[in-house]
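wait is this the right file?? whatever heres the structure
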């Protein structure tokens, strides 16, 4: 097999993405966090700042090891509960470098960070990803800046610019979904003046993984893209069925355009024939739609949901999670979801019959403890939470 050193390796086209275990050796503030005996649906619970969201990010980075643009997109999901920019947003360099293990801000004084180490396995196939990050300084030719920002009208003979940046070196041993295990390495030089513009044209890999942030239902472009995919694949009827289950007045979802025909929008058709923009409906309907669309887009892969209960009223939890429980089988998706809600945990448990408890696992993440992960089987969750009313979140 010939591997292009400048192109991310691609897994076999029909190879599903599903893992039995995941180990965060080092990522952000996490060290040696092991998730063993993973199931179809995996709930991550624990106190605030335990690292639940960081685990989701680590999984996403692990399977997008050579996609630094995707690293940045993943990092941005935790910066706020809005899809619009805000005043204290981290710079591109800061968003990337704080993914690397750190105990304090002074670690950057020596110009180096600790290494990321992530590992997953399915059967005998193990993937290992490591990454290092170093601060760099250099002088950027003006022509490089001019090309990167697309300013072809600017004078071609401007002055060079001193700049600071990051050199991210990624190495991986990949076996899952490969004909033969391979080793691959790529370096990424990111400059503060250029941001990620230099990476936009780099060849991209492909992986069936979707990340849904707590406010992801407000991202109209992302939902439009996913709804278009659902329409093309002929699976939109499943989306419509979920909406009708949530509100019997609804009939289905459609894509419409503005009056000038330029701007596409998502709209919901009622049973009486009315048509309403999705934006005027409640957050619950929008969140349920986003979960459903993300799950379909993750077909034969992994769906990561941060705060699975976000924006959903307690009365809707049972119906949404019942749909989710059935859909993960239909679309062959493995789910990792964080939650702070005992009601959400109970609703997910109830969505599974006793015969399906093996498809569900819970993991309590405890911060700064040697044995920092406690695993609950689906049967244990049913007995402890649903029958006895115990709180496994702390």
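ok assuming it is, sequence goes like this
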């Amino acid at each position: 097999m010939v591997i292009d050193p400048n192109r991310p390796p691609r897994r076999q086209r029909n190879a599903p993405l599903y893992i039995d275990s995941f180990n965060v050796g080092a990522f952000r503030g996490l060290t040696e966090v092991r998730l063993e005996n993973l199931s179809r649906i995996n709930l991550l619970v624990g106190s605030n700042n335990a690292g639940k969201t960081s685990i989701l990010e680590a999984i996403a980075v692990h399977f997008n090891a050579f996609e630094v643009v995707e690293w940045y997109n993943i990092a941005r999901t935790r910066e706020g509960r809005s899809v619009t920019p805000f005043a204290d947003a981290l710079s591109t360099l800061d968003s990337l470098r704080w993914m690397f293990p750190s105990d304090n801000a002074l670690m950057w004084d020596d110009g180096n960070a600790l290494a990321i180490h992530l590992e997953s396995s399915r059967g005998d196939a193990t993937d290992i990803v490591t990454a290092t990050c170093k601060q760099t300084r250099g002088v950027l030719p003006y022509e490089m800046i001019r090309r990167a920002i697309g300013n072809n009208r600017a004078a071609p003979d401007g002055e060079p610019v001193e700049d600071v940046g990051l050199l991210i070196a990624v190495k991986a041993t990949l076996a899952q979904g490969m004909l033969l295990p391979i080793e691959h390495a790529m370096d990424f030089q990111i400059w503060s003046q250029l941001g990620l513009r230099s990476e936009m044209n780099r060849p991209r890999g492909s992986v069936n993984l979707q990340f849904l942030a707590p406010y992801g239902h407000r991202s109209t472009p992302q939902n439009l893209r996913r709804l278009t995919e659902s329409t093309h694949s002929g699976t939109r009827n499943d989306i419509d069925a979920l909406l009708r289950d949530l509100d019997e007045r609804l009939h289905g979802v459609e894509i419409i355009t503005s009056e000038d025909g330029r701007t596409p929008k998502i709209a919901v058709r009622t049973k009486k024939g009315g048509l309403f923009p999705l934006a005027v409906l409640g957050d619950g309907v929008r969140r349920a739609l986003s979960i459903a669309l993300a799950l379909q887009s993750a077909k034969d892969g992994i769906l990561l949901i941060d705060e699975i209960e976000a924006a959903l009223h307690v009365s809707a939890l049972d119906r949404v999670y019942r749909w989710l429980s059935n859909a993960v089988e239909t679309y062959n998706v493995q789910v990792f979801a964080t939650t702070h809600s005992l009601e959400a945990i109970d609703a997910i448990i109830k969505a599974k019959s006793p015969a399906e408890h093996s498809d569900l696992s819970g993991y309590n993440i405890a911060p700064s403890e040697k044995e920092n992960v406690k695993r609950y089987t689906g049967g244990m969750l049913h007995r402890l939470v649903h029958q006895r009313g115990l709180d496994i979140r702390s």
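The longest helix spans residues 314-330. so i think its the right one actually
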